[in-house]
Design goal:
- The chain has 11 helices and 5 strands.
- By secondary structure, it is of the alpha/beta class.
- The chain has a 5-stranded parallel sheet, sandwiched between helices.
Length: about 240
């Protein structure tokens, strides 16, 4: 059965979303280590090669386009993201889900929706139609931090941030969308306070996953796993 037909799968799809600097990558990797005692687990990020090597998108990200072209790029970017997400789902994620694996997505389509909205594209119906063949995650965890906290963590990194990563109003708009879920609220979409210590966040993540019956609800296990991961308390990605 094709992805367009709503392919059934025996695995589990978990999405972890959040602003840049919210700690989602840290939590995705910690959760994967805990879940691997039960079987194969993959942590995947969106394939962004087309974005990295596409000159108009590079110019947009660096703020080098004239205003009229910047406006049009707001439409092009979710189009490219939809194609990338569909291909990754068809070729990489879905085969693993069919094989019974747990797949943790470090970012998912909700991030695309939130960023498009922050850029001024509010046609959620169009965005949702573009991505209508993507399966709904079994669980989505949104790592919530305030814009100023996210910006502080981004500035602490070694690489030079893009202009959107420095725009507090833009960051706040992305956060608002991820909190309000204009694409439609889901019971499987949970908001986690990600401004606390890594250990506390990991315990909440574990409890959310435990409610699905695939891992024991044992916050102490999360503490042990954090301790085993060298330097994880310094990581905020």
């Amino acid at each position: 059965m094709s992805l367009r037909d709503g392919t059934p799968y025996s695995g589990m799809l978990i999405a972890i979303c959040g602003l840049d600097g919210s700690g989602k990558t840290t939590q995705a990797n910690l959760l994967a280590e805990q879940l691997r005692v039960n079987g194969p687990v993959s942590v995947l990020r969106p394939n962004t090669d087309e974005f990295r090597y596409d000159q108009p998108i590079t110019d947009y990200m660096e703020g080098h386009l004239p205003p009229d072209q910047m406006y049009d790029m707001v439409i092009e970017m979710p189009l490219m993201a939809a194609a990338n997400l569909f291909r990754q789902m068809r070729t990489t994620i879905m085969p693993r889900l069919r094989a019974g694996e747990i797949v943790i997505c470090d970012r998912y389509v909700y991030t695309v929706y939130a960023r498009a909205r922050a850029r001024g594209l509010r046609d959620q119906e169009w965005l949702s139609q573009l991505n209508r063949y993507l399966p709904e995650p079994d669980l989505t965890l949104y790592m919530d931090v305030r814009p100023e906290v996210a910006l502080q963590r981004v500035l602490a990194r070694d690489k030079v941030p893009k202009w959107e990563e420095l725009d507090l109003d833009r960051i706040a708009a992305v956060r608002s969308a991820l909190l309000e879920q204009p694409w439609g609220p889901r019971d499987s979409y949970q908001i986690i306070d990600a401004e606390r210590p890594v250990v506390e966040i990991a315990a909440d993540v574990r409890r959310a996953v435990a409610a699905m019956g695939i891992i024991a609800s044992d916050p102490e296990a999360a503490v042990v796993e954090v301790g085993r991961t060298e330097g994880v308390t310094q990581s905020r990605r």
